[in-house]
Structure formats: structure tokens, C-alpha cells
Amino acid sequence: MTVTHVASLPDGSPLLGVTLRSDQLTAKVLSFGAALQDLRLEGHSSPLVLGYQNPLDYLQNPSYLGVIVGRVANRISGGAITVNGARYELDKNESGTTTLHGGRDGCSHRNWDVLEHGPSHVSLGCVLPDGHMGFPGRLELTATYRLNAASLQVALTARTDAQTVCNPAPHIYFNLDGHADIRNHRLQIDTNQVLPTDQGLPISGPISAETLGYDLRTPNAVPQGLDHHFCFRPASGPLQKMAQLSAPGIAMELRSTAPGLQVYDGSGLSVQGAGLRGADYGSRSGLALEPHGWIDAPNQPWSHQSALGPDDIFSAETEFSFEVLA
Known about the structure:
Structural class: mainly beta
Strand content: 35-45%
Shape: globular
Strand order of the largest sheet: 10-11-12-13-28-24-23-16-21
CATH class: Mainly Beta
Number of helices: 1
Radius of gyration: 18 Å
Oligomer: single chain
Distance between the termini: 30 Å
CATH architecture: Distorted Sandwich
Number of domains: 1
């Protein structure tokens, strides 16, 4: 494990990089956005994730490559919430109408502190002040990356000093074979429940994925235009298998405690020469798998999924396990 000063931010503060190792995985984590910059598997030549080669490129990062997003992942309708009967206007950073991933200065675009680290793990912390991006309550977030053999574990916790909303998530794009796109990947999702949406916002509760043509309970090619939230349970619970992604010679299994999984085929990616090893990331260069509470929870019947009070602790854990195939 090494911690290095990899760049200086515009305000002069250090952007730190941490290299983690197990007997089978090597990961690079950055303090800015608590980003997973790179992930490699022993015996497999290409990176497993999309990331920027230059750490300073994470200051823009319009597609949220590899970062922790929040304080609320995904979209909030109308860019507003009501907490304890009071209405809060939020930062409308998407088309001037919705709040995406916590606003333009969400935790994905802030420099986290390195709290504690060891050879195979690092914990980072980020404090979002009361009123930040319009949200009530001071929120203390932690993100821990841990390598265990061929598994990457991502654990998130949060505490607040006042009633608020909280639904952070890792926003990692996977490309398992190093090709320019994910056409050779096969995806399996272990539920047939999905949220129907209009412009990315739910228009009802979960419906059968077959209705939308997205029943992926058996491995299949990643559908074109996939950007949907798959619903597993009404509240967080024990770790459970949610998805499996494979490409020739390699497979990954995702397990999480989250209620749902956002799956995005990366069709809007547009990174020219700035990816790992100078790669281009064009349309469908990677698949984003984002475990978190269902979309727009603060404004929906499933608002309990994002509610967080001063006596509560938010906790979520996700495990990505890799295997080289014969």
C-alpha cells in the first residue's frame, strides 16, 4: 500500500492517490471524489474499470467515472425535497430541472480526506455542510475500499446532525475485456422488477422488466440504451447477488445490501484520449453498475429508503468478485 501526492488542486490542496493490493487484485484510489481510478486482476491484461489517466481530469468528470456519488445518487424530481414539512430547493444541475447525484458540487466533485489505510484497504471521509447544494443537515460520509483475494468491497456509511436524505453510491464503469466497447459482454440481473421512467424519473412503482424488454434473469448481451433501475427489495438487507457480468475469459459477480441497482450501458460516454493508458471511451465503452436506493426516493412512496435522522446510521456494502475463466 502506498499513499502519494499525485497532483495539486486549484486551491493548492493535495490530491492523494492510494494503491491497494491483495494476492489477486491491485486498485488505485484517489482522494478526489473517492474515485476508483484503476483496478487490475492478476493474470488478466486489461484494466477492469474505466478511469482517467490524469487525476486532475476527475475535477470535470461529466460521466462520473469511478467516483462515489451523493449525498443522493441518481435523480431528484423538480430539484426539491420536503423534510419534516419544510421544502428545500436543491441545486438543479441537470437541464435546470432535476438534481443529479447530489448537485454539481456533490461528494463526487469534492476532495475527501484519507482517514485510515493499510496494504489492502483505505477509508476516506467527506463532510457535506448543512445547506450544501440545498440539502438540510451536516452529513459525514465515509467510503472504504477493501481488497480480499479476487474481490473488491466498497462500504459506505453516513451520519447526520439533523433530519435529511441520504443515498450515496459507487459509480463504477466496468469493461472486462479491454475492447473499445462492451459488445462481447453478457449481463445477468437477478430480478425482473424495474422502475418505468420518463426522462430518467419514475412514473410508477416497479413493474415487470419483461414489459420493457429488459428481462435479464438469464445472461444476455447488454441491451442498447439500457439506463434503468432494477428493484430487488423495498429496503436495505443482507448482501445478496444482484448481477453477473462476463466477457470472454473473465466474469464478475456483484453482491450488495442496497435495495436496487441502476444499470447504464454508457451510451453517452465521450472521453477522447484521456482514459487509462490514453484510451478513448466512446459510446458503450463501459457498463455502469450502481447499487443504491430506488430513484427519486425523497419524493416517492419509497421515501424511507433515503430518510436519515440524527439517531440513524446509513450503511451500504457492495462486493465485486472477479474470476478468470478457462
